[in-house]
Amino acid sequence: MLAPLRPDHRELLAARETGRSLPAPFYVSPEWFQHDVDEVFSKQWLFVAAEAEIPEPGDFVTVNFGTQSVIVIRADDNTVRAHHNVCRHRGARLITEPRGATGTIVCTYHSWTYDADGHLTYADAQDSGFDRKCFTLRSVHVRTIAGLVFICLADEAPTDIDEVAEIVEPYLAPHNLAQAKVAKQTDIVENGNWKLTMENNRECYHCNGHPELLNVFFPIWGYSSTDTVPDRLAPVFNRYRISTAELTEVWDRYGLPHRNIFQLDTRPTGFHIEREAMDLAGESFTLDGSLACAKLLTDDLPERKLGRVSMHLQPNMWLHITSDHGLLFSVIPIAPDKTLVRTTWLVHRDAVEGVDYDLNRLTNVWEITNQQDADFVALAHQGISSPAYLPGPYGPSEVLVEAFVNWYITTLRTNMGVAAAEPGTAPMDMGSHMAGKAAAS
């Protein structure tokens, strides 16, 4: 049952002040956490896996948040399916493992058995009028985009996912993620609200706390000209402009799209994507910027130095892709003060560990960075939990944070029927995008 919207919560939602962090209840209140589960994570497209995690028919992963559990499985026809992880007999959870492979989905309670498409194939000791076709697993909307798997739990999913796919696929497709393999996957539980995790990701104002990452990562997000760049970043910004100019010639030569497309808070499935230069050798996320994997993802492109594709998608993912590997991040809320961050490293399917890549070299920079980010999120949650906390202002480089918070507030207002209190800040019209059911693919 959906949690009711308390009058004081309705007022907070209506009165959110643009350009400032959210009031404390949005981060620490159990009721707000339930609103987030019910109105955001249960109604939006969520990134849940790479196709590389389920390369063969019968391979599956399970995705859990709140009381929800979903089976994402590759069917015999090689398509990806998603089903609620609930037996149609008496409701037992079907699969308890986080990942694996199976020929059939068997309920351990009474042995009801389903195929990967969700059809009930066996149910013992039923009466003569029993029709197995009436007890197919409840399906979940699923959409694959260039090797990435997204699901939506709503009866009617936001239909703009097709528009988003059309825009982002040309950026992702040259890196052949659907033909990659998982080199490593890690889970870290951050001691903070999921929105703090996303806000932390959406800015580089804090990036002095990432010395390893800053070897190759230009910390210039949010700055559009040298007029607004702090003096300490002026040399970095100059290197970034020179590297970008050099790489633009390479990108254009190979027909690689690189324009910065920023639609994070102007549509239901908010996203941002661009191709950017990297510092030092400019090839990969290593301490010196040189390749981490000798076998490139970009089979048909001989260039090692392609910078990185950067993509953010609301509400729970971001990624970075270089010529030699992909980095995928997904965020799942666990509790008001607990958030699961999953990182997946992808390499070429034929790359051999110890021959083409050293696993520690491949993962070291981001494993260190992930722990640093977890520490920052914990500090933020601790401070916001204090009665002394008041919402603070976002600076010029925190434009993606404002976009995330604006998207979040607009989504809640739209789904919960709350109008903005301030003139001129009414929610964007999402109705046309919410009108139809998204087709599974």
TrEMBL record:
<dbReference type="InterPro" id="IPR015879">
    <property type="entry name" value="Ring_hydroxy_dOase_asu_C_dom"/>
</dbReference>
<dbReference type="Pfam" id="PF00848">
    <property type="entry name" value="Ring_hydroxyl_A"/>
</dbReference>
<dbReference type="GO" id="GO:0016705">
    <property type="term" value="F:oxidoreductase activity, acting on paired donors, with incorporation or reduction of molecular oxygen"/>
</dbReference>
<dbReference type="GO" id="GO:0051537">
    <property type="term" value="F:2 iron, 2 sulfur cluster binding"/>
</dbReference>
<keyword id="KW-0479">Metal-binding</keyword>
<dbReference type="InterPro" id="IPR015881">
    <property type="entry name" value="ARHD_Rieske_2Fe_2S"/>
</dbReference>
<dbReference type="GO" id="GO:0004497">
    <property type="term" value="F:monooxygenase activity"/>
</dbReference>
<keyword id="KW-0520">NAD</keyword>
<keyword id="KW-0408">Iron</keyword>
<keyword id="KW-0411">Iron-sulfur</keyword>
<keyword id="KW-0560">Oxidoreductase</keyword>
<feature type="domain" description="Rieske">
    <location>
        <begin position="46"/>
        <end position="151"/>
    </location>
</feature>
<keyword id="KW-0001">2Fe-2S</keyword>
<dbReference type="InterPro" id="IPR036922">
    <property type="entry name" value="Rieske_2Fe-2S_sf"/>
</dbReference>
<protein>
    <submittedName>
        <fullName>Putative iron-sulfur protein</fullName>
    </submittedName>
</protein>
<dbReference type="GO" id="GO:0005506">
    <property type="term" value="F:iron ion binding"/>
</dbReference>
<dbReference type="InterPro" id="IPR001663">
    <property type="entry name" value="Rng_hydr_dOase-A"/>
</dbReference>
<dbReference type="Pfam" id="PF00355">
    <property type="entry name" value="Rieske"/>
</dbReference>
<dbReference type="InterPro" id="IPR017941">
    <property type="entry name" value="Rieske_2Fe-2S"/>
</dbReference>
